[in-house]
From TrEMBL, chain A:
This is Fe-S cluster assembly protein SufD. It comes from the Bacteria. Residues 7-176 form the SUF system FeS cluster assembly SufBD N-terminal domain. It comes from Labilibaculum antarcticum. Residues 184-412 form the SUF system FeS cluster assembly SufBD core domain.
TrEMBL record, chain B:
The lineage of its organism: Bacteria, Pseudomonadati, Bacteroidota, Bacteroidia, Marinilabiliales. It comes from Labilibaculum antarcticum. This is Cysteine desulfurase. Its cofactor is pyridoxal 5'-phosphate. Belongs to the class-V pyridoxal-phosphate-dependent aminotransferase family. Csd subfamily. Gene3D superfamilies: Aspartate Aminotransferase, domain 1, Type I PLP-dependent aspartate aminotransferase-like (Major domain). Its EC number is 2.8.1.7. It catalyses: (sulfur carrier)-H + L-cysteine = (sulfur carrier)-SH + L-alanine. Residues 25-394 form the Aminotransferase class V domain. GO terms for biological process: cysteine metabolic process.
């Protein structure tokens, strides 16, 4: 087993040796950001469990593997018909495809979108729309605080760029399918930038998928800026195989009177670490951060959340729920920071966990840092087993035990699903979760690819 | 004659520190106490001027250190009124002292089917060592329960003791509830049936006068860092005849008389139980701490801390939804509490941001928490360098936290 120093040195070597490929095709702004981040990565390195924020997720085994890294776009043979395993029936979406972290070259022009909306690769956006791009790229993510984010910024070449101009309302959600497909074990770096301008509205649905059985490590960073009065939804469906590692960091900055809802649903994946960072940077913002994780086998999911109330009169509401079976381990850390001037803050948080086996474990840790006086919070963390009384109630009405358990688990999970603001997606995820809890198949039930999850 | 609190506070440099930009309010004295300048200076003086390994040297420095160490032993002896200075064994702390007795006394006196009694109020360090020896010897561990006020049900003790009972291990004062236990009575009941008693005084030597001869206690343990002394030093007092009969627990240098590969004969008390290079400078520091406490006067300290306890209890109970766990008639300055609907961890974290240091959790007394059916408490524990003004800060801090946690 390699030690952390070897892993960090390998990345430093990769950065130096791959410099030409990294710089090539990226804009000057991206490359300047890259250089700074590399220095920060050399200081921080890949976070180990000594780092309090990564106490419950050991990344060394995840990184200790001879992955291939694509520093330039590789053609990936994707049969578009295969993509429909993540299609949402009756959900009229604009679909965008990314392969191994890169914007897919064969993506059709999304002509259906309202005028002025831009959807393209990050690399392309950096060159084509430098004014918009440079004003936001690298402004919200914090490579100085997390080695994973620094590594992403240093190696970032491409990802998804979405720009929604002032006053534009996108009715049909944009569906982003992230495919990992390779004939070798692969580490994918993906960098997304979503800019939602004043009074604009957009909903993005992200589905993570693996199409082959190879070992994957995906390190993705998404920056989002939500301008005054804008409304933005981000749904993430994590559905990769058990041999994959997902590192997913989202940084959202909200301006005055904006409304943001994120919902991150982890159905499959070997090791998943989600970093949810929200900065409430204008008054009267509303932020809802939801998440759900359904784990079994030796899966591990760690949700780290940080909600930063920088301005007064904002509401943040956080709710994560998990069902854990087998030898699964999970972690939840909820940090709420209320700055000195952020008076009249409302901050709610809760994390509920259902442990179905003796070996499943959850570490849940709320963390409040409150410097303002006039603040209202509530939060609770619960860890429990199936409610035997409720089980008895159902069985007394002729429902067999297995089905009764299923109903209770489903009801437990449904509380998070019903927060989805896209009706057909809600139904679709209900069905996925029902199937997942039944353990019948371990992939989307419309999947056309038997990828041996 | 009251205490000059300002003068006392000036003796403790750490009390001037700012925490998160606010004056430190240190209410975690049951976990560890702060150190006066007199103790810190003593440690520095020895490291600067006199450091040398003890008992072995023929040179000046070694003699100086040896004298310091043995003088500290005499200070401890007088402090708890032991008959002989060699009944004072220096250990790394109360935990090691209990382990020493459990292992060594257990080795010598506990056999299969015998019994050890602990109380339900004990700190884990006075439970686990006994569990280990009982497991090893196939002996039985029995528990003396406490009532909902946090007082030991002393009337059950007599029935709990059988002719197989060898030792009772009980704390003088509960670290999580503050209850003062009737150890004199416990010792009387035990001795009437030829049962030995170990008293864990980790939470009491800094508050109460202890006279081991008057109590007739068999073993007594405490830690240096809880009585304003350094960390890593503790005391085991044991009656001479018991210590002489008990086998050594650790082998090494210092504890031997003569060594051949065939046979080793052991040194006399106290060295028999002090294998290896002792923590002599911290022992000297402990001596300085005890002298500091004696100079102020333990009765005065106790009286003032009791005033703080009464003031804080009344103040905290006026907060709606606040419940104090541990309401014994006799208590020291420890308040364990919960506010309805607010997790102890949140309370502790938010108080910390106001510069108030309290402890949260089970306080290493899980059985106590299980008794009350709770996961943990917030514990504020006061020392003679604390003030009523600081208690006001705590009171206002709790009110602030209560306001934050409005029901959604």
């Amino acid at each position: 087993m390699a030690d952390i120093n070897t892993i960090n040195k390998d990345f430093a070597d990769l950065f130096e040796q791959g410099k030409e490929l990294l710089v090539n095709g990226s804009s000057d702004h991206m490359n300047e950001t890259r250089e700074k981040a590399f220095v920060q990565f050399q200081e921080l390195g890949v976070p180990t469990r000594v780092n309090e924020n990564y106490k419950y997720t050991n990344l060394i085994p995840a990184f200790d593997h001879p992955y291939n890294v694509n520093l330039r776009y590789m053609e990936v043979d994707v049969d578009l018909n295969d993509i429909f395993q993540c299609d949402v029936p009756e959900l009229d979406t604009n679909m965008v495809l990314l392969t191994n972290g890169w914007y897919y070259g064969e993506n059709k022009e999304l002509t259906e979108l309202p005028k002025g909306v831009i959807v393209c690769g990050v690399q392309e956006a950096a060159v084509k729309y430098p004014d918009i791009f440079n004003a936001h790229y690298g402004k919200y993510a914090k490579p100085d605080e997390d080695g994973i984010v620094a590594l992403n910024t240093a190696l970032a070449k491409d990802g998804l760029f979405i720009y929604v101009p002032k006053g534009v309302v996108i009715e049909r959600p944009i569906q982003v399918v992230n495919l990992l497909r390779s004939d070798r074990d692969l580490m994918a770096t993906q960098r997304n930038l979503f800019i939602i301008e004043e009074n604009a509205q957009a909903k993005i649905i992200v589905c993570d998928h693996t199409l082959t059985h190879h070992k994957y490590l995906s390190n993705s960073v998404t920056e989002v800026n939500v301008a005054p009065n804008a409304v933005f939804d981000l749904y993430t469906l994590q559905n990769q195989h058990l041999n994959s590692v997902i590192l997913n960091s989202i940084f959202i900055r909200q301006d005055t009177n904006s409304n943001v809802l994120t919902n991150t649903i982890s159905l499959y994946g070997g090791t998943i670490r989600n970093n949810h960072h929200v900065l409430l940077d204008g008054e009267h913002c509303e932020n809802n951060t939801y998440g759900m994780y359904l784990l079994d086998n030796k899966q591990h999911v760690d949700n780290f959340t940080s909600i930063d109330h920088a301005k007064p009169n904002c509401l943040s509401n956080e709710h994560f729920k998990g069902v854990m079976d087998g030898e699964a381990t999970g972690a939840f850390a909820g940090r709420i920071n209320v700055r000195r001037d952020a008076q009249k803050t409302l901050a709610y948080q809760s994390n509920n966990n259902l442990l179905l086996s003796d070996d499943a474990q959850i570490y849940t840790k709320p963390q409040l840092i409150i410097d303002a006086d006039d603040v209202k919070c509530s939060h609770g963390a619960t860890v429990g087993q199936m409610d035997e009384d409720a089980l008895f109630y159902l069985r007394a009405r002729g429902i067999d035990e297995k089905e009764a358990r299923q109903m209770l688990m489903f009801a437990f999970a449904h509380e998070i699903i019903e927060k989805i603001r896209v009706e057909p997606l809600k139904d679709r995820i209900d069905a996925l979760v029902d199937t997942r809890l039944r353990g019948e198949i371990s992939k989307c039930n419309t999947c056309a690819i038997a990828c041996k999850n | 004659m009251t205490l000059d609190i300002n003068k006392i506070r000036n003796d403790f440099p750490i009390l001037k520190e700012l925490i998160h930009g606010k004056p430190l309010v240190y209410f975690d004295n049951a976990a560890t106490t702060q150190k006066p300048r007199q103790v810190i200076d003593k440690l520095i003086e020895y490291y600067y001027k006199y450091n040398s390994n003890i008992h072995r040297g023929v040179h000046y420095l070694s003699n100086k250190s040896t004298d310091g160490n043995e003088n500290a032993r005499i200070i401890v002896q007088n402090f708890i009124n032991a008959k002989h200075s060699h009944e004072i064994i220096f250990t790394s702390g109360a935990t090691e002292s209990v382990n020493l007795v459990a292992n060594s006394f257990g080795d010598r006196y506990i056999a299969e089917g015998d019994e050890v009694i602990v109380s339900e109020l004990e700190h884990h360090s006075n439970i686990v060592p006994w569990q280990l020896i009982c497991e090893r010897k196939k002996a039985v561990l029995k528990v003396l329960p406490f009532n909902d006020q946090g007082e030991l049900m002393i009337d059950q003790l007599d029935d709990l003791i059988t002719d197989r009972t060898k030792i009772i291990a009980v704390n003088h004062i509960s670290n999580s509830l503050g209850t003062v236990n009737p150890i004199r009575k416990i010792i009387e009941i035990a001795h009437a049936k030829n049962v030995r008693v170990l008293v864990d005084a980790a939470q009491s030597v800094q508050h109460k006068t202890i006279d081991v001869q008057e109590l007739d206690v068999d073993f007594l343990v405490f830690s240096g860092h809880k009585i304003y002394g350094p960390t890593g030093i503790g005391v085991l007092y044991g009656k001479e005849e018991l210590l002489n009969e008990m086998p050594p627990w650790k082998g090494g240098g210092e504890m031997i008389q003569e060594v051949t590969f065939k046979k080793t004969t052991y040194n006399e008390l106290p060295y028999k139980f002090e294998a290896g290079t002792p923590n002599y400078i911290d022992a000297i520091g402990l001596g300085a701490a005890i002298e500091y406490v004696q100079n102020i006067g333990i009765e005065k300290i106790d009286a003032y801390e009791h005033e703080l306890l009464e003031y804080a209890t009344e103040k905290l109970l006026s907060i709606e939804g606040l419940k104090i766990y541990g309401t014994a008639e006799l208590k020291t300055s420890v308040i364990s509490f919960l506010v309805k609907g607010i997790h102890f961890y949140d309370m502790g974290m938010l108080l910390d941001q106001m510069g108030i240091a309290v402890r949260t959790g089970t306080h290493c007394t899980e059985p106590v928490m299980q008794h009350f059916g709770i996961d943990g408490t917030v514990r504020a524990s006061f020392s003679f360098y604390n003030t009523k003004e600081e208690i006001d800060v705590l009171y206002n801090g709790i009110l602030k936290v209560c306001k934050m946690f409005a029901v959604k």
